[in-house]
Design a protein that fits this description.
With about 375 residues, the protein is of the alpha/beta class. It is about 25% helix and about 25% strand.
């Protein structure tokens, strides 16, 4: 019999993430899962670490495209040990005590179905065995829970959508973010030149340590809001040609300026809209009254290929695209070529502080909530 634990919960949706985190996130007792009610292919994971993602932040105000049933437990991905397994989970796959991580495709608050209620900000979660993966031997729990979603997103965008080639130049916006930093590492493995942008000189120094060839700080010199012009810097770094691929997880003014930094025929990958998180209505209201817009005249005259790159949705539409990238990322991880970076760690009781750190942009790479040390 497993002892009781703790879990974080979001009790209702707010108008904006800041309010949602401050007012609606709380921690309560969690009873261990009743294994008599579980499937023969289920696995109970005793969670050590859970990633704190940008999606977790947006979901507190219902401004992400998927809205879980309230109340819910945040945490899309987590890592821990196998505490129980169903009768049809073979020992050849997992044994009790094995170190594992769980991806977000069929479990957690972003999923649909019976496993939606098992978020990672908790002592325990239940997942189907096909969603559970062995931890790379050279990873910590903190790194493992920041592996699948971040690096699969970066791989899907850079490799599958962007077709980045050795010798090309890629401009990566939001390079200090979880997926942005993963994209930097993958682009360097592929042999590309990486120009990374961000708003913090200190963070960009760390991004350079992870492989970026050049960095550009977008913070305005006069301290005013918005970004500085960066076209001339990008053109200077590319001998006037512009970049071949853009990885844009930020949106807004950065996207508009970027359209003047590209080579003819460049691939423009839209990965997110971190600079304008309030695109949708608050409290789960649908519609996008504040949606970003791109000028079609520049897109045409530059011959751009503009691609939306939703990793999870694309994979749900075509599951066959996932096994090759999972295999390649596993190979790179075990060879030490990619390593999730985690800058912030919080105890489960301080889950609210973890979400605030992500919301405020304090995090470099990954952020973690720990249910066990």
């Amino acid at each position: 019999v497993l002892p009781p634990g703790r879990r974080a919960r979001v009790r209702e949706l707010a108008e904006d993430p800041g309010t949602g985190i401050e007012q609606n996130v709380f921690v309560e007792e969690q009873l261990a899962p009743d294994v008599s009610t579980l499937s023969s292919v289920d696995v109970v994971v005793a969670i050590h670490s859970s990633a704190v993602s940008w999606v977790d932040v947006l979901m507190t105000s219902g401004q992400y495209q998927h809205i879980p049933t309230l109340p819910y437990t945040p945490g899309l991905e987590y890592a821990g040990t196998v505490a129980w397994k169903g009768a049809d989970v073979p020992d050849s796959k997992y044994k009790l005590g094995d170190k594992v991580y769980v991806a977000c495709f069929s479990t957690g608050p972003r999923s649909s179905g019976p496993y939606q209620s098992y978020g990672g900000f908790a002592s325990y979660a239940v997942a189907p065995m096909d969603a559970v993966y062995p931890m790379p031997d050279n990873f910590t729990y903190d790194q493992a829970c920041n592996f699948a979603g971040n690096f699969e997103t970066a791989y899907h965008c850079v490799v599958d959508c962007g077709k980045l080639q050795a010798g090309e130049t890629i401009l990566i916006h939001g390079a200090s973010g979880a997926t942005g930093l993963a994209a930097v590492q993958i682009a360097k493995i592929l042999g590309a030149t990486v120009i990374a942008t961000g708003r913090s000189e200190d963070k960009l120094k760390r991004v350079k340590e992870h492989g970026a060839d050049h960095t550009i700080c977008l913070k305005r010199d006069d301290g005013e809001p918005g970004i500085k012009r960066f076209r001339d810097e990008v053109k200077a770094l590319t001998d006037g040609k512009g970049v071949d691929v853009v990885y844009d997880g930020v949106g807004g003014d950065i996207s508009l300026e970027t359209l003047r930094c590209v080579n003819f025929g460049a691939r423009f990958l839209i990965v997110g809209w971190a600079s304008t998180p309030l695109v949708a209505k608050g409290k789960g209201g649908r519609g996008a009254p504040n949606a970003n817009q791109l000028p079609t005249n520049l897109i045409m005259m530059k011959g751009l290929q503009v691609m939306g790159c939703p990793m999870v949705i694309s994979t749900q539409k075509d599951p066959s695209i996932r096994p090759p990238r999972v295999a390649k990322l596993k190979e790179w991880a075990e060879a030490g070529k990619i390593t999730p970076h985690v800058s912030h760690v919080f105890e489960l009781e301080n889950a609210k502080d973890a979400l605030i750190a992500r919301w405020n942009g304090d995090v470099l790479g990954g952020c973690v909530v720990r249910a066990r040390s």
